[in-house]
Amino acid sequence: MFRRQADGLEVFLVHPGGPFWAARDQGSWTIPKGEYGPDETPLAAAQREFTEETGFSAAGPFADLGEIRQKSGKRVRAWAFAGDADPSQLVSNTCKVEWPPRSGRRITIPEVDRGRWFRLEAARDSIRAEQQPFLDALRLLETPDSPLSR
């Protein structure tokens, strides 16, 4: 999700939940994302995951920002859409993780613990390095004839 402000574009990023990410900030923020199965299109999955992880709706028009591969090998495809949301109203779904690692103990954590608006330039320092190409693609799509400009 992005929004236009008088001083430029802002993007909405989320911070992963749980004890592993609790003390990490710079380079740990991400776009809301998740997996999809054979009965769901990537765009439908992106809309569903956005809502599950934030409690906010994702409504088009959508612009395809491409696909990246994260260090873990996970492929991530992203779409941009114009919107607005109050980060203090974020409500995330939860998941179970093993914590501490290799302890056999499972705890329930929110998938994301907070969201925040970032100016496009500042987002580069905060987002996972592998996802920076999405910011570049968004910047390239910000032209007068882009579907995002409507």
Structure write-up:
The protein is of the alpha+beta class and 150 residues long. It has a single domain, classed as Alpha-Beta Complex (Nucleoside Triphosphate Pyrophosphohydrolase). It has 3 helices and 7 strands, in the order ββαβββββαα. It has helices spanning 42-54, 120-126, 132-141, and strands spanning 2-5, 8-16, 63-69, 75-80, 94-98, 106-110, 112-119. The protein has a 3-stranded antiparallel sheet. A hairpin with a 7-residue loop joins strand 5 (94-98) and strand 6 (106-110). It is globular, with a radius of gyration of 16 Å. The model has no long low-confidence stretch (mean pLDDT 93).
Summarize the structure.
By secondary structure, the chain is of the alpha+beta class. The chain has helices spanning 42-54, 120-126, 132-141, and strands at 2-5, 8-16, 63-69, 75-80, 94-98, 106-110, 112-119. A hairpin with a 7-residue loop joins strand 5 and strand 6 (106-110).
CATH architecture descriptor: Alpha-Beta Complex
Distance between the termini: 15 Å
Order of helices and strands: EEHEEEEEHH
User: What structural class is derived from the secondary structure elements?
Assistant: alpha+beta
Structurally, the number of domains stands at 1
Radius of gyration over alpha carbons? 16 Å
The overall pLDDT, averaged over residues, is: 93
Secondary structure elements and their pairing?
Elements: E1 2-5, E2 8-16, H1 42-54, E3 63-69, E4 75-80, E5 94-98, E6 106-110, E7 112-119, H2 120-126, H3 132-141
